[in-house]
Amino acid sequence: MSSKPSRLVRLAIAAAVAVSGTVVSLSAAPVSHAVGVSSTDGQISRAEVLARAQSWVDEGVWYSQQVYYTDSNGTYRTDCSGFVSMAWHLGVSRTTWTLPGVSTPISLDSLQPGDALNRLNPYTGEYDAHVVVFAGWTDSAHTSASVYEEARPGTQARRIAYSRSYLTSQNFKAFRYNRIIDSGTPQGSQDPGSLPTGTLVKAPNNPTVKLVISGSGLAVSGSDVAPDGYDLGKVVVVDEAKFNLLPTALPVGTVVHDAAGGSSRYVVVGDAALPISGAEWSADGYNTRPDMGVPTSWLQGAVRNSLPVGTVVHDQADNSPSRYVVIGDAALPISGADWSADGYNTRPDMGVPGGWLQGAVKKSLPSGTVLHDQADNDPSRYVVVEGAALPIAGAEWVPDGYSVRPDMGVPSTWLRSVVQASPADGTVVRGEAGRDDKVYVVLGGSALAVSDADKAAYAERPRLGVPENWLRGAAQRPLKNGTVVRDVSGGPSVYVMAGGMAVPLTAADYSGLGYDKRPLNTVPGTWLTAAAAKPAPADGTLLLSPDNTTVWLVTNGGSKKALTQADFGPGKYSFNDVVIVPTTLTANLPFTTS
Q: Could you count the other beta carbons within 10 Å of the beta carbon of residue 223?
């Protein structure tokens, strides 16, 4: 009997995942060739890595970023990084971002079977695109590599050859798992991982000194030795292979401080060190944990690091039941409805200092970040531009270059809120594809064209790429009635928008009509000149002037029609849509009764 589910069953499960967004676990009967001598997160031979990779090819495991597959190898997510995590026998399904944390960069020509190739994204400078297991060169000249991979949705685990030119053009970088060995039985004497915390160690042929803490090895730089008080005369020489395999990350929740001194304390989560405030030291229970002195240079790097994308966190003090997911440096709120539906309940839930969390919650995702609904209830993709999520049309996905950016799953409720938002007022935008050099400035959800004569006024602002479909719609959208504007280049004139027309306000109008209480927005001068030259507001605009209480409806191409109280109410006109304008405007509009 086959140990793998039938193709029909796998397709049905994949369809269920696409609809529900929940994490599904598949199970298969153990396969004998995947069994090895390694333990989770332990040393593993190159032969065993390849055997584990081949087992998923034999079992026909389908790609998914939500599905977890269980067989004799363990339980792992069935995307590219989950596949490498399975092959290396890691304790969790790491991401392309976090796999470098358990591996060491090497050159392409140093690759050996069982190593990995991780693609460095040129747009983000992060390893956030794709990763594969290297199986070997297909020729002595190293012009073609055989790799194992979980490639993309709709495909199964496979072994395939890629040319060296393709790997280099796509920015793939070579990595070696820190605990991989060339044979099943490592040779050596003292294991540095078994030495007491605080021991300094080095390998016979490696000048690097490391500080052992809880089985991990933190590099000690030359600048650390004197300030941190390290006695190099007490360095223990250990087995070279085991030295190179020491984990570089401390266990989650470890409390650390700079060995050189100072009162600051930090808690380790992933590869990051998060600051603990004085108020949190006791309230959050950090004072009950061992407090480890670490090398200054290592701590400085850890403080700069971000938590892995997708990490679920909560306030360590548990003053709030709220949960958040980390994307970049921002923490996005997870609603109660999203907790299970989006699969966040299946991830480790990390307690973090409340002060750090409050700061992360206030941060925004960087412009250019590509998003989708974590639950996959909405197949759409969006790009973040100054606080708003703008829809990406299918036709824009590849030509605009969005397909090569990391695609971040975010909580459904949070996504809906930013989809309804507009980029911040004053944001300068252009079409992402760059087919023309037209530039626009955003105001109230509208995109106002910036002429060549006006570009100097916006020269200091970054020009952000946006999807062309969204830009076309925003360029056609008139400014909201009641918006107060003036020329970005200066000048005393002030205007109020009414039905696409920029209505001039005298100084008396500006204060007398209450517009001095509203934001005064700058707009491109050429655009403003055209808006002020319009003969009348657009039909359908409701106007009120201070000379009387009559509300006028602009109709018939610039005429005015008086409305009565009976014209307002549910299903009729709303007083909220009325624009107060100077009497000179309403007086100059011809009267009509039709």
A: 12
